[in-house]
Design brief:
The structure is a homodimer of 469-residue chains. Among the domains of chain A are: 103-221, Uridine Diphospho-n-acetylenolpyruvylglucosamine Reductase, domain 3, CATH 3.30.465; 225-337, Alpha-Beta Plaits (2-Layer Sandwich); 340-425, Alpha-Beta Plaits (2-Layer Sandwich), CATH 3.30.70.2740. Chain A starts with 9 loop residues before the first helix and ends in a 13-residue tail after the last helix. The first copy, chain A, has 469 residues and is of the alpha+beta class. Chain A is 36% helix and 20% strand. The first copy, chain A, contains 16 helices and 18 strands. In chain A, a hairpin with a 4-residue loop joins strand 5 and strand 6 (112-115).
Chain lengths: 469, 469
Amino acid sequence: MTQHFKKVNKEDLDYFSLKLGNQNVKLDKESLTEYASDETEDISISPEVVLFPQNTKQVSDIMAYCNENMIAVTPRGAGTGLSGGAIPLFGGVSLSLKKMDQILEIDTKNFQARTQPGVITEVLQNKVSELDLFYPVDPASRGSCFIGGNVAENSGGPRAVKYGVIKDYVLNLKVVLADGSIIETGANVLKNSTGYNLTQLMVGSEGTLGIVTEIVLKLIPLPKYDKLLLVPFYQPRQAAEAVNTILKSGLQPSALEFMDRDAIELALRYSDEKPFELDKEIQAHLIIELDGNKEEDLMEGIEQVFQLLEEYQTGEILFAETAAEKEKLWKIRRSIGEATKRHSVYKEEDTVVPRYKLPDLLSEVKRIGTIYGFKSVCYGHAGDGNLHINILKENMSDHRWNNELPIAIRELFTFVKNCGGTISGEHGIGLVQKQYLDIVFSEKELDLMRQIKKVFDSKGILNPGKIFD
Amino acid sequence: MTQHFKKVNKEDLDYFSLKLGNQNVKLDKESLTEYASDETEDISISPEVVLFPQNTKQVSDIMAYCNENMIAVTPRGAGTGLSGGAIPLFGGVSLSLKKMDQILEIDTKNFQARTQPGVITEVLQNKVSELDLFYPVDPASRGSCFIGGNVAENSGGPRAVKYGVIKDYVLNLKVVLADGSIIETGANVLKNSTGYNLTQLMVGSEGTLGIVTEIVLKLIPLPKYDKLLLVPFYQPRQAAEAVNTILKSGLQPSALEFMDRDAIELALRYSDEKPFELDKEIQAHLIIELDGNKEEDLMEGIEQVFQLLEEYQTGEILFAETAAEKEKLWKIRRSIGEATKRHSVYKEEDTVVPRYKLPDLLSEVKRIGTIYGFKSVCYGHAGDGNLHINILKENMSDHRWNNELPIAIRELFTFVKNCGGTISGEHGIGLVQKQYLDIVFSEKELDLMRQIKKVFDSKGILNPGKIFD
């Protein structure tokens, strides 16, 4: 792969400072280090400069300039990505959307929010919930990740099983293209059959097709109540099977999360609080959440879940009723990624299969792990068939890690593909998964994507080296 | 616009017959007339030949041949389209998907159906409901339209207000491109962040990017009960406002349909059955449907609707409880389009706005009608802000109809755009709306779409002259 990007020089910096103000052009070592990596594994590649535009016009000016001067631009949200999307592979500009952090409008009449990309997901959630509205897309990193980054990666989270992922909420986008032109992808409406769906093409395109500077999101009425169960299983397979049983019953849980023993163990080890004891025979857990507007219906639903679970061998089920109890359980669930990071060098896979295949996928992960000598932490959104697999390096030799693991992952992804699944459910391809893209797409399919990329970014300056080379 | 398509000659016909069999190559006058038009207004343009492939391979063979020989190909579902998408503007081949009418699999474990494009929507709905599953996308033409056509137009229908449109159910597509190559757009999964979303790019692309030959659809559990209300209003504006009141209450109706007096009058006039009397003071109706798994909850919901409606001036509310009563009301609603057609030459617009703007849109339609001298029948999916406007020719002179009406429509669409809306919610742009596309898209946005078209169909043989020139 050869890319001929121009290095950022004095003249370029002067232009950036002129357009953005000195304080929004950062070259200091600390900034360059901070923007060299995101939450993906242990990769670090420094940009040449970090820019902080404050409005669409500034983004447009920068893009037009960089496009003309062939400077690579890597857009960046909060840097919580797990596939290396925000890592500036070719140096150049790291374009942070951090200072575009305004919620521009919450339209309580039409149930819509219009935001800038740098709004933290949880901030938006809290803001709309004060108005009895609900923005249900809820990645584990919601306390720090940005809406813009969520759009770029097509983020999901635990509630996707009932409410869908961010693509199901994005109605319209304002986007700056590589050449600086500004477009709108759709309209602020719930249904749209007007031209090609540029909105959905942009969602999940990982900052390779344009820089999203404004987002119109659908909101829904806030459900009044929710209830949470933590169900321990003696056999991981039974946990995965119970997911199907629950969904077939007609219940619509707002979360159906799976965690294998290693995932919970790690999370508890690095947690200050231990909301429950982990029995030594327990091999997996499900978190089951029900939500709705009538408390008695939820209690009936909970009873129904208990009945459905009778056919499985479960440990003592924890029923979290208060907000504090629920939050403790969710915190454990959300901390698995962070705990893994603290524990060992690791690789995170984001496989997704038709959900009934989940037990098979789990077995296959463990089987491949035994052959290639790695331990894995498996958890994720069982209701969607979306299993996160954290492969731990621990004592594996660098040689095996670097040379054999890619073969193991290829084997795993081939299995996933053969199940009708694919290699990323919500983290994106970015930098670290692109080598495996040929498993799920034919050369023709990849070629279509590359050509679409060219339509939007003819010189290839926008997040170069991501998704494909 | 100049297009240089080759006319279909003897040699071409021999090739088609060789690949498809004689019985699947039709040249008789009756066939050519049948395939010259769809349900769009009174437009008729004859193809040179109608082909009936029976599998993906045959579609691929035909496309490769037509691409090489520069023969225009217009794919066709059931011909129920309302924007002229299936009209063979440049003659050539009308490619009917009628004989690809198999439901290939209903996967009750993963809640998915895999079908060919020629399956009638209602056939699929009935088939999956026998298995307690639900495919909720429900266009008025569901008794005759094809799933493939629904994909092409991103069809919706009354239940979209709760359940979304077909784009929310399409997980994966098998597609034959213009050059005959066969691709899959995604995977059979509920979440996908793997490369660009070709699936959603294909949905709603009106047969201009490829020919869909296999569709994987998400299914959901079948709700056990539904209840239906027909609510007459003395003022259309109040009906539109009541929609917002109901949705703000947190109720999630499975349909919220608006019909103005003229719509109901027409439907009743051409209907065999009159399930209700139309009081002479009544100016509009809402159909309100609630569905769910617990009958008592639905009854409570119905009571809540009655309470919410107390602030409006309504006539006597009709509560349909039996399947037969409900079906009678739905039949009236579904027959409006057909009744309009029988009544007068007309144009059907498919405007969509943020739903709170619906009362304003209604007023604007009538205001413009007064100025330009046309009567209109307004109805549609009020819960989504999707208003169908049938403009009746009646006694309007041909001159005004042909010369002034486009100006009136332009005025209307500009109003829609300024509301944050767009010009098609579920019918597509096709042939008849493309002249207005510049109202909602900038030249840059249109150019992106044209270039995407080129990526998929470099010679422009696939459904030429649709969406844009």
